[in-house]
TrEMBL record:
Keywords: Membrane, Transmembrane, Transmembrane helix. PROSITE patterns: FBOX. The keyword Transmembrane helix applies. It comes from the Eukaryota. The chain crosses the membrane at residues 452-470. Residues 5-52 form the F-box domain. This is F-box domain-containing protein.
């Protein structure tokens, strides 16, 4: 032993124990075991080895396993000596089977599995696996994060079976948290395997779960989880549901409810609000969603009249709600100050910002303060700022206005703990516009998806009209018509939307005129044939008079009647250049 170790051993046990508790117990065990008997006794103490964490947190917040040599030494040398003390185990799912094979853990109650993959889940959460056989009546707290990208139906089926197996087999489970990843990869309900007539782990008190749609949420609230008090659900989408809840025991027992809806929904008022009204004993409520195509913005009056007035015990209400594509029928149009006034009148601490993209069509983002969630809904350049200490993930998106330097400075002040930032902005910054002006002579116009869709529809319309015109041309007997149209792009403004639309509308009008001239020309041909028939039966003097009449009807035709040739092109008006 060196002098440093001797000085440490001179400290009393209480001080040494306090120092060791500040360190990672896995690193302490791997470093100090075998140096001195006194250090071994302290390191193997029951209070020091109840929780074993074999993971480390990266700067972006993800969990990774410790170095392979540390894990190997810990599992082979140290873990067999402390397995009786372990009550909580935090481990990467890929090495969990190796940890299980080391020794049995008779006191294990809490388990956290990070980055679970479908192949590992298929082996662990089966009826005949050693984990289910030995620990299904022992585990009381289970936390799982899944990082698989579901593209195959077989993978999705395994995850669905894992959900059902956990709820069905672990009889003593009280706390369950399952982070299922991105719900957009699920094609069907995740809890469709739950039978309404079968008894499940009804003792679950806390449940946090990622699910596909509202049907999965209703399955959890139909009474089968009779002891449930806290439910945190992350739903991918809300759409039409046929499930009806008749047993309200779970709804009435809930004290904390959180719902985060990933995709914009049209059915918030018709499907979600009626369920919230039946949770009359709620004490804490959290709502995060985007609501589409309402006749008014979600404001303080709506939250009070439709939701909170039905919850007499509610004392904490956090919300992050965006009303998008709302067709406002009120006049004058409500502004941000009008929405803030409704919060003050109803006793909410909240802020908001309002913007309009078209006349009467607007977007309103409301959020409670102080903001305690780690994510906030997508914000635009109209964001007014604030202090959001807990937000780690943020998305900025604006398709009408560019993000300037002052806006990014505001974001830096408002989100000091930000880790991940996603940015979407189609507006070209000023410097890029100057480059385009130098190259093309003028800045390129900004086209939204609506403009492109309108241009596409005009193109389809032109194709239909041209095909109709060609078919009509073929139906005209033996008369050759040639059409040509030339569109010249302006070099100083490539792909000009307005110019293209003018070309399209001009071509449509000329096609209408073309149709009228076709009909008029066909009438003249018919009259000519009638005169020819009459001339065959009249006298020679009468025939010469009819020929003169036909030549007057069709200018440019000086040939005899029998030749049937027309030199002048009656539709030459299309052989022009459209500017």
């Amino acid at each position: 032993m060196d002098s440093g170790t001797t000085q440490i051993l001179n400290l009393p046990d209480e001080v040494l124990y306090l120092v060791l508790k500040k360190l990672n117990n896995v690193n302490v065990l791997c470093s100090l075991v075998g140096i001195h008997d006194r250090l071994d006794r302290l390191a193997y103490d029951v209070n020091f080895t109840q929780t074993i964490n074999l993971t480390t947190v990266s700067p972006n917040g993800s969990h990774k396993s410790l170095a392979d040599d540390i894990v190997h030494r810990f599992c082979s040398v140290i873990l067999p000596r402390i397995c009786v003390n372990v009550k909580s185990l935090i481990v990467q799912a890929k090495i969990f089977e190796d940890v299980l094979r080391t020794k049995n853990y008779p006191n294990l109650q809490m388990l956290t599995l990070h980055n679970l993959q479908h192949k590992v889940a298929a082996r662990i959460f089966t009826k005949n696996s050693s984990f289910v056989r030995y620990y299904k009546h022992q585990i009381t707290r289970l936390v799982i994060t899944i990082n698989d990208r579901f593209g195959m139906r077989s993978v999705e089926t395994i995850i669905c079976r894992t959900y059902v197996a956990i709820i069905m087999w672990f009889s003593r489970l009280r706390h369950l948290s399952v982070d299922g990843g991105d719900g957009s990869y699920y094609s069907r309900r995740l809890l469709r395997g739950l039978s309404p007539s079968r008894c499940y782990s009804s003792g679950i008190v806390f449940l946090s779960i990622d699910i596909k749609d509202l049907d999965d949420c209703l399955c959890l609230l139909d009474g089968r989880l009779s002891q449930l008090e806290t439910l945190l659900v992350k739903i991918h989408q809300v759409r039409y549901s046929r499930i009806i809840i008749n047993n309200e025991s779970t709804l009435l027992k809930l004290k904390c409810f959180s719902m985060k809806i990933c995709r914009p929904t049209l059915d918030f008022h018709d499907k979600v609000v009626p369920i919230l009204r039946r949770m009359s004993n709620l004490e804490k409520l959290t709502l995060c969603c985007r609501i589409r195509r309402q006749n008014s913005f979600i404001d303080g009056h709506y939250l009070t009249n439709e939701i909170t007035r039905h919850m007499a015990r509610l004392h904490e209400f956090m919300f992050d709600i965006i009303s998008i594509e709302s067709r406002i029928i009120a006049y004058p149009l409500p502004c941000s100050d009008d929405i803030r006034r409704t919060f003050v009148e109803n006793g909410y601490h909240a802020d908001c910002y309002v913007e309009y993209c078209n006349i009467g069509i607007g977007r309103c983002h409301i959020y409670s303060l102080p903001f305690t969630m780690d994510r906030i809904q997508c914000i635009t350049s109209r964001f007014t700022g604030g202090m959001f200490m807990n937000v780690r993930f943020l998305r900025l998106a604006d398709f009408d206005h560019s993000f300037e330097n002052a806006f990014f400075a505001l974001i830096a002040r408002s989100f000091p703990s930000l880790r991940i930032l996603s940015l979407s902005n189609t507006e070209i910054v000023d410097k890029s516009k100057e480059i385009e002006k130098h190259v093309y002579g003028s800045p390129m116009p900004h086209h939204s998806w609506r403009d492109l869709l309108l241009l596409l529809l005009c193109g389809v319309m032109l194709v239909v009209i041209v095909i109709w015109g060609l078919r009509k041309t073929k139906m005209s007997g033996g008369i050759q018509r040639s059409t040509s149209m030339y569109v010249i792009y302006q070099k100083e403004n490539p792909f000009p939307l307005v110019a293209n639309l003018q070309i399209a509308f001009c071509f449509i009008e000329q096609c209408k005129d073309y149709r009228k001239r076709i009909c008029k020309f066909d009438n003249k041909i018919h009259e000519r044939q009638m005169l020819k028939t009459r001339a065959a039966s009249d006298t020679p003097a009468k025939k010469s008079e009819d020929v003169k009449t036909v030549n007057e009807l069709i200018p440019g035709s000086t040939n005899p009647i029998g030749s049937h040739r027309i030199r002048q092109n009656p539709i030459g008006f299309l052989e022009t250049e459209l500017h």
